[in-house]
Amino acid sequence: MSQDAITPGHRSSPETPSSGRKRVRTRGQRIRRAVLLSVLVLAIAAGGTAYWLYSRLDGNIKGVDINKALGEDRPEKLPTSGQNLLVLGSDSRAGDENKELGGGGSVSGARSDTAMVVHIPEGRSKAVAISIPRDTLVTRPECTKADGTKVPSAERKMFNSVYSQVGPACVVKTVEKMSGVRIDHYLEINFAGFKGLVDAIGGVTVDVPQDIHDTSSGLDLTAGPHKLDGTQSLAYVRTRHGIGDGSDLGRIGLQQQFLFALLTEVKKQDLLGSPTSAYKIANSATKSLTTDEGLASLTSLTNFARSMNGVDPASMETIMLPVAYDKIDRNRVVAAQPQADTLWKAVRTDSAIPESAKKSPATGG
User: Fold this and answer.
1) Would you state the pLDDT for residue 41?
2) From CA 2, how far away is CA 18, in angstroms rounded?
């Protein structure tokens, strides 16, 4: 054996590790390795959590392929027509939470309880919301149900019955036929989702225009400002016996007022400063949401919302579709002419809506 051979009991130095032996690390090296491992574990955990949260929110959203259901028989999309959304509040009783809300324990099926065409002109700095009374008599066009069944056209159908009889795609088609306006996107939220959204943002403050005592919903409010929770808010936008003549027209003003208050509250929430609140609000908003396929992902919905950032709720105008009492049934209304045609033409051409087109012969007062 040469003199260079390692004698028994001799340990090689860290600088000259012997073959097949583990390198001996110093204390500083061991600490750095532990820190790197900790950072790696935290990064993986954070990434996994972020992916789980994204997947959960993304999976909440239900999509309806409106374009496929309607085909080519639709109004032309004009280059200057901005964006048009059909927003529905559904009184679906599906699920235990929905059954408990809105006095729906013994009611089956679903109707479009609230309907608004929201028009966002080019530039997206302002918007107009046009409410369609649920009691409006319309001509329902020929439609196809989700199961492929053809439903023939029918006249003098209540607008809110189209949803329950044929489905959301037919509601979009009905609105397009009566207005000539191409609907770009569809958004629907049910009772539970509406209540959850209001509760998630901590309530919404509204200035109640007059005393409301609705024995049907249990809503009991005096005139003046009130901060409403989710259950109270749902009763507020649905009350019809506690205000006006008891018809659907009386509550449309309350719905439009509440929309202002809700959008204002959401806009002023410090979502970036509170990720927990942001997730809570997003979860409430998405889990009871149905959209067209173009918005049926968290990414698409977020991008669309971001594009609307310049729209100030204070600049949003709310209009009720001009209607007149039906001559055969005074409990129903029909689109008033020429006001309705003038209104829809202004929306189609992205032009100012004349004051004359905002006046409704039937007011619900």
Assistant:
1) 55
2) 16
Is the distance from CB of 74 to CB of 196 less than 8 angstroms? no
* Alpha helix segments (H runs only) across 71-206: 96-100, 161-165, 168-179, 191-200
The closest of 332, 330, 336, 328 to 359, measured between CA atoms, is 336
* Burial class of residue 313 (count of CB atoms within 10 Å of its CB; 0-12, 13-18, 19+): middle
| Three-class SS of 279-323 | HHHHHHHHHCEEEEHHHCCHHHHHHHHHHCCCCCHHHCEEEECCE
Is the link from the previous residue into 225 a cis peptide, with omega within 30 of 0?
no
Three-state secondary-structure class, residue 174 = helix
pLDDT in tens, 80-97: 768 899 998 876 544 444
For 266-304, what is each residue's pLDDT tens digit? 777 765 556 677 777 788 778 878 899 998 888 888 788
> For position 186, what pLDDT does the model report?
93
Q: Is the pTM of this model over 0.85?
A: no
Distance (Å, whole) CA 88 – CA 291: 10
| Average pLDDT of span 18-35 | 60
CB 63 within 8 A of CB 291: yes
Confidence of residue 4 (pLDDT cuts 50, 70, 90): very low
Q: What is the DSSP string of 10-66?
A: ----TTSPPTTPPPPPPHHHHHHHHHHHHHHHHHHHHHHHHHHHHHHHHHH-EEE-H
**Residue 17 Cα distances to 12, 198, 206, angstroms:** 6, 67, 77
